[in-house]
Every structure is written in structure tokens, then in C-alpha cells.
Write a structure and sequence with these properties.
CATH topology: Rossmann fold
Strand content: 15-25%
Number of strands: 10
Strand order of the largest sheet: 1-2-4-3-5-6-9-10
CATH class: Alpha Beta
Structural class: alpha/beta
Distance between the termini: 33 Å
CATH architecture: 3-Layer(aba) Sandwich
Length: 284
């Protein structure tokens, strides 16, 4: 299960990707949510490899990818980065998996480039637009600021790692690994989180309501969510599934970040989904 790091250019932005598996195997591309990094998928990889090649990008402004200068963190920016990554690293259609904001990116890309996507898994993503009042409550205090708070030591930065929204039941070893990949020493004795806070715009990713885009997706799809999540609550889960013909639905214990709390179970469900996809592009 050795991971390999690869770098790809998307216009002026240098992007980092983590890749597991054999290049000859079919590819699953996994896209995490706002504020995360490529290693959010680590606990799911053993369920997919061998048999599938897993490609996890660090989104612009996240993880080991570059920050956009000037800030450019709209849904179309992320979708264009995904296009650049697939053009550089993948031959043929992929299974596309997205969590939270990553699900929105996956939907935008799958609707625009159906020939490149053989299956779509949406994990606890909200397809309606951002409410500015609600966003201000979460993001208002850091709006307009890019650099995160500094911590005097690596240990202090690791201890400050939190899930937003909170997620109970994540194994301590998983929390430690997620925190380890999230921090960097930007100067001696100044530890911080890698994430560019310019991503946290009060109008979100600028993509607005994506419910209509769901109707343009023709590949097999599945929706997975946490039973206690308010991001993709039961009503929204039903609405998204209804907009995707033939869509299956799975609900797991936990909240919005159920995939890191129950990695083995979610990985097994994803493996079942991708193994059931057509072995060729049905549109070709």
C-alpha cells in the first residue's frame, strides 16, 4: 500500500496528487471536502487496492498543492484542475468519488464531461447554494484572511486539529494521521495548517444550486451519507438520489465525516459500487 506523490500543473497552479495501486488497473479518483487533504482517503484505500488505482488530488489551496495567486477558489477552478489532473495521469473514464465540497466538484465535472466518468459516488454533499447568513456564522471571523494561526510547536499544532463539523468516533490513530498531513512549519517555531483560508468565501464555491446539473449525469451513481449529518440530511439525501436515475443510497453511522470514522465499511461499500460499474464506457 505504498503511496506515490505526483505533481501536475493546472494553468499557473502546481497541484499535488497521491496515487496508490497499479497504473494498469482502472482508476478511482477521490476528491475530499473543504479544508481537507489527499490523505483523508487513506483508510479507504485498502478496500480498493489492489484491483483499482486510486488517485487523490490535493485541491488548490489545500495540502501540498500551491495556493492560487490571486485567490481563485471557485467551483469552475476546481473542476478545471480536475480536468488537468485526469488529462495528465489517466487514460479512459474514471470512477469519481467526492465528499462534501468534493462531491460538488465531482458533479460539476461529471455533468460537463460525461465521457470521462464511468460512475459517480457522492458522499455527504449539499447540492444547494450557500446561505450567506449561515456561512458568516461559520466563516465570518476569518473572511478575508489567508494565513492561519501559528503554533509554537509541532505538538501544539497537532493538538489543535479539529473536525468541522465535529465528528465523534474517529479512531485516534486516524485523527493523528490526518493532523500530521495537515500541518507545516512555515518558519522556525511557527507551525500552522496548510489550508488557504481564502477558500472560505461567504458565498461558498460560487457554483450555486447544482440540482439541475444532477439531471445531466447519465453514469451509474450512488449517494452515501452519515445518519446524523446536517449537511446532507435525510430530505436532501432523498432529493439528490431522486435527481439521479437509478441511484442507490447508503447511510452509515456518524455525521458529515463518517468516511474517516468508518473507513473500512465505507471503503467496502465503494468497492462494491465500483466493481459493479460497466467495464467500458457505454457512450463510446
Amino acid at each position: 500500500m505504498t503511496a506515490r506523490s505526483v505533481r501536475v500543473r493546472s494553468g499557473p497552479v502546481d497541484l499535488h496528487c497521491v496515487v496508490w495501486g497499479d497504473v494498469a488497473d482502472p482508476c478511482v479518483v477521490v476528491v475530499y471536502g473543504n479544508g481537507g487533504h489527499a490523505h483523508w482517503w487513506d483508510t479507504l484505500v485498502p478496500a480498493l487496492v489492489p484491483g483499482w488505482r486510486v488517485l487523490a488530488p490535493d485541491l488548490r489551496g489545500h495540502g501540498e498543492s500551491a495556493w492560487a495567486e490571486p485567490p481563485a477558489y471557485r467551483l469552475d477552478d476546481y473542476a478545471e484542475d480536475l480536468r488537468a489532473i485526469l488529462d495528465a495521469l489517466v487514460v479512459g473514464p474514471v470512477a469519481l468519488v467526492g465528499h462534501s465540497m468534493g462531491g460538488r466538484i465531482a458533479v460539476r465535472y461529471a455533468a460537463a464531461s460525461p465521457e470521462r466518468v464511468r460512475g459517480l459516488a457522492i458522499l455527504d454533499s449539499r447540492m444547494t447554494g450557500v446561505d450567506r447568513t449561515a456561512a458568516a456564522a461559520w466563516r465570518g471571523r476569518i473572511s478575508g484572511r489567508r494565513a492561519g494561526r501559528g503554533y509554537p510547536s509541532r505538538a501544539a499544532a497537532l493538538a489543535a486539529f479539529r473536525f468541522v463539523p465535529d465528528e465523534r468516533g474517529v479512531p485516534e490513530a486516524v485523527v493523528a494521521e490526518l493532523a500530521r498531513h495537515a500541518i507545516i512549519e512555515r518558519a522556525p517555531g511557527d507551525w500552522t495548517f496548510r489550508f488557504d483560508r481564502a477558500v472560505l468565501s461567504l458565498d461558498g464555491d460560487g457554483g450555486g444550486d447544482l440540482m439541475a446539473a444532477l439531471g445531466r449525469i447519465r453514469c451509474p451513481a450512488t449517494v452515501m451519507a452519515g445518519a446524523d449529518s446536517w449537511v446532507m440530511d435525510a430530505a436532501h439525501r432523498r432529493a439528490v438520489a431522486a435527481a439521479l436515475p437509478g441511484c442507490t443510497t447508503r447511510v452509515f453511522p456518524g455525521g458529515h465525516h463518517f468516511l474517516v470514522a468508518h473507513g473500512a465499511e465505507v471503503g467496502a461499500a465503494l468497492r462494491e459500487f465500483v466493481d459493479g460499474l460497466p467495464t467500458h464506457d457505454p457512450r463510446s
